[in-house]
């Protein structure tokens, strides 16, 4: 776990985080973690629970906030979305997303990518409202103000449409890094977390220079309350007992590809997902 920052977190947090992500984009694109060659050949990149919970996207418009280099965004296009738009604050990520879209046969009229901060999404994206606003795993921890995020995201949902979020469960950030069996951090902390670890989750041994990051944890109650305050109606909140990576040392990988605690150990939520709709 990173170390907590003072309450007055660094004013340059956005630029610090952007430099970190800009440097890691080419590492992620060239490495094995994202299996891009398999993706180009048609391999599914979305998680099965996301596909089931989002449902049929055929003929619908979809906005993906904090899309990285667009692999998940383009997966929704492959699944039949009429138009997908991906937004990310990293210019190299957006350039890589556009290149990937062209490689697999999607032009900008079907799959567009925009470089902008998520808080500026309303002004940055080409359409005012989307049938689906989607955001994937590992996104909210980079944002200091969850209420502002909720207002921005909700304002982009068309009447009758919905926001879908899949995230790592904030409870895991309160546990010890080794075993995940002890509560060692404050679940309700609103302080920023600073980290200086080199490399990247996609390649721990990668040589990197821009290693400083600033992150925040957001209890589920705050996320749900922030979305409900915008007028969206919560349809479901699901908690999941699996993770996408070996978050703790004792995790084992199942045949489904997910990581869990060993059999016989009491389970805790490791991820969560929610859907919130805008009434017609």
Automatic annotation (TrEMBL):
Pfam families: Methyltransf_25. The lineage of its organism: Bacteria, Bacillati, Actinomycetota, Actinomycetes, Kitasatosporales. GO terms for biological process: antibiotic biosynthetic process; methylation. Residues 63-161 form the Methyltransferase domain. It comes from Streptomyces jumonjinensis. Keywords: Methyltransferase, Transferase. It comes from the Bacteria. Gene3D superfamilies: Vaccinia Virus protein VP39. This is Class I SAM-dependent methyltransferase.
């Amino acid at each position: 776990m990173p170390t907590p920052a003072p309450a007055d977190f660094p004013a340059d947090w956005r630029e610090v985080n952007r430099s970190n992500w800009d440097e890691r984009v080419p590492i992620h694109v060239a490495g094995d973690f994202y299996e891009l060659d398999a993706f180009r050949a048609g391999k599914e990149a979305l998680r099965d629970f996301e596909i089931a919970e989002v449902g049929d996207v055929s003929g619908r418009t979809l906005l993906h906030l904090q899309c990285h280099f667009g692999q998940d965004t383009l997966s929704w296009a492959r699944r039949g979305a009429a138009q997908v738009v991906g937004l990310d604050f990293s210019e190299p990520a957006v350039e890589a997303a556009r290149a990937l879209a062209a490689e697999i046969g999607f032009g900008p009229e079907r799959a567009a990518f925009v470089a902008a901060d998520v808080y500026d999404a309303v002004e940055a994206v080409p359409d005012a409202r989307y049938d689906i606003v989607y955001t994937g795993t590992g996104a909210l921890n980079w944002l200091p103000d969850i209420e502002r995020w909720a207002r921005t995201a909700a304002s982009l949902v068309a009447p009758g449409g919905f926001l879908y979020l899949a995230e790592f469960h904030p409870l895991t950030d309160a546990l010890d890094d080794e075993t995940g069996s002890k509560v060692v951090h404050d679940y309700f902390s609103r302080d920023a977390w600073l980290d200086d670890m080199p490399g990247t989750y996609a390649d721990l041994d990668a040589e990197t220079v821009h290693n400083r990051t600033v992150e925040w944890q957001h209890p589920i109650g705050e996320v749900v309350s922030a979305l409900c305050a915008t007028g969206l109606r919560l349809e479901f909140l699901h908690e999941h007992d699996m993770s996408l990576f070996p978050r703790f040392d004792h995790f084992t990988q199942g045949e489904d590809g997910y990581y869990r605690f060993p059999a016989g150990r009491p389970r805790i939520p490791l991820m969560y997902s929610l859907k919130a709709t805008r009434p017609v």
